[in-house]
Design brief:
Two copies of one chain form a homodimer. Chain A is built from five helices and two strands, in the order ααααββα. By secondary structure, chain A is mainly alpha-helical. The longest helix of chain A has 28 residues. The radius of gyration of chain A is 23 Å and the shape is elongated. Chains A and B meet through helix 1, helix 2 and helix 5 of A and helix 1, helix 2 and helix 5 of B. The first copy, chain A, binds a DNA duplex through helix 4.
DNA sequence: CTTGTATTCAAGCGATCGATTGACTACGAG
DNA sequence: CTCGTAGTCAATCGATCGCTTGAATACAAG
């Protein structure tokens, strides 16, 4: 997988078990054993899932005797939402501009057989 | 990978090339050739990336002669943002409640060596 | 019909993923 | 010190990923 942090966050949440772990951690910290309990997989598998989540910065682990309570770091979500919102907004803005354009020329049928190729031409 | 749609969307965006493709499509539709041009990989590799994005519902393809213009479907982003926002809000709300609790008992040092275990007890 | 262009299909390959098993470390309690 | 508990490390395995090459399909134009 790519090493950049955005890729790691998306990849971490691409697994349903890991998403479920995140969902449960949003209700409060928990130990590895507590987290592993609802799933059929081994404790080690959950431990590895947590390592992935930790690598993505989504969770941190305290050290409390032999227990390692897992804590959700919800701020990392911002990284994703920022990325998503940026391009969503850009796409929606484009639709808006297209609508405006269509309104300014209310005539039917395309004027030429070679429509807009060359998409690069918008530095935006 | 898991078959559910949320997993597919997250997995699709876990790749930097695919994120870049999405980013570029937010500026307007493009053909496979146009999309492949900036990257070092083969056209086939880009075609496969597009298949993944299509499988996640992030893009659709029209059929225009031998060309297949790719179109970004920004609505699918909602699936992610909804999921993210839900648990982010839940986590933040928990912090707020914790703060409130800490304010109600303004005495220093922890009252007992066994703090809140048993995270399950909150149906929220 | 033949050629060129745009794109997909198909098979193969090394790398990584998710999971398992078995051994190991860290710590508290008896 | 020994035992049970909480968790990680390490090796392995099959499945999937991202990419490549080579062949096939779809279509427009000469």
């Amino acid at each position: 997988m790519a090493a950049d942090s955005l890729s790691r966050v998306f990849a971490a949440l691409a697994d349903p078990t890991r998403r479920d772990i995140v969902a449960r951690l949003s209700g409060g910290d928990a130990t590895v054993n507590e987290l592993a309990e609802p799933y059929q997989v081994t404790l080690q598998a959950v431990s590895q899932h947590l390592k992935v989540l930790e690598g993505a910065g989504l969770v941190t682990r305290r050290r409390d005797a032999q227990r390692r309570p897992v804590h959700l770091e919800a701020e990392v979500f911002d990284l994703m939402t920022k990325w998503i919102e940026r391009y969503r907004r850009q796409a929606e803005e484009r639709y808006r501009r297209l609508d405006d354009l269509l309104r300014t020329l209310p005539d039917d049928d395309e004027p030429s057989p070679s429509p807009t190729r060359r998409t690069k031409g918008e530095p935006a």
